Amino acid sequence: MHFDSLPGWLRWQESLHPLAIDLGLERVAAVYDALNPKHLKPLTITVAGTNGKGSCVAYLEAFYKAQGYRVGAYTSPHILRYNERIKINGEPVADGLICAAFTRIEAVRDGHSLSYFEFGTLAALDIFWRSGLDIQILEVGLGGRLDAVNIVDPDAAIVTSIGIDHVYWLGDTRESIGREKAGIFRTDTPAIVSDLDPPASVIATAQERDALLYCLNQQFYYRKQAQHWDWHAEDRQLNGLPEPALQGEHQYRNASAAILATQLLSERLPVSADAICEGLTHVRLAGRFQQIPGDIPIILDVGHNPEAVKTLVDYLHDNYNGRTVHAVFSMMKDKDIAGVLAIMAPVVHAWYFAPLANHRAITEAAMREIFLQSPASKVSFGHTGFKDAFAAAKSQAHPNDVLLVFGSFFLVSDCLHEFEKSELTT
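^ thats the sequence. predicted structure below, dont judge the formating
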């Protein structure tokens, strides 16, 4: 199979495998063995966790880029364009590179059925090892142990926070989810955990695998000062660090884990204190507390589980306390929607449901039922999509109010696409 365009490849991949998510390494590993028999790869850091993965990858990418290394970053999902998933030196790779990788994958697939995500993972790994990179940073898509990213042995592994999400695939307790996330740990390899209260299963898995375990507040630490912060781990110490450009208390934890990874791998790729400071100052991450300034500021956030929206509530309290918040909102139907509404209800004054054109998204009828049981107050239904819901919210907002768009990557994507087309902020 061969296509002349990236959209053509992606449409075909969406129909190739019967399941959108099919955890397991046998199929994808078989294709990887044929695609890259010697398993050639640059230095590798793999990042898993319920929340904080994207931020941690962004910090690592910023640190190594600031040091002058060639760095690849694989993340998912994308917000605007598929190419965002595969970046080199902070820039999405071109369509042609991805199509060439897909062609090579298809040439060796030998009848193995691959999911959309597995195709993308193999493409990223193929592009990265062929591009002469110094380091690749791989974000786990879902779980860890059985995620396609786990076909590659990392030189350091990071597990960020552990929360309840993707229960159909990972289980409905932090212990079961933690064991899946910790499946990226390897023997005699740094296993970095930035969750303040990690499940016992994470620690047990690290010990079972004889990984080199580093836990926040046990083997590495941070301390906030008035205008800066300090970090230390065993014989390593960095003082007077600038505040992370990504906002929220949790970002100190994510940044701390990323700093530790650079220090533990410093014999192979040294990273200076200056590069870390530059990375902290210039790091960017679309869709997480993303702000569009104006008389009525707009905040975009992809948070879609209780843990993520708790940090969103803290952010709103710290930065917009006392302001009226109008929330344009939607979620996937497999999420803890009632839990999210309960957490957000105290800070949101009016809700505007935006239906999504995605088979995994909650329907308006189902959302109405959830809202009937929630503590949320004023709710607006009947909108045709994001653009209509956003217009309704904006029409009711006054100067100094806040427009919040949150709950799903797909919703934030719809929002940014509309900004590109019609400049909704004007």
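The chain is about 40% helix and 15% strand.
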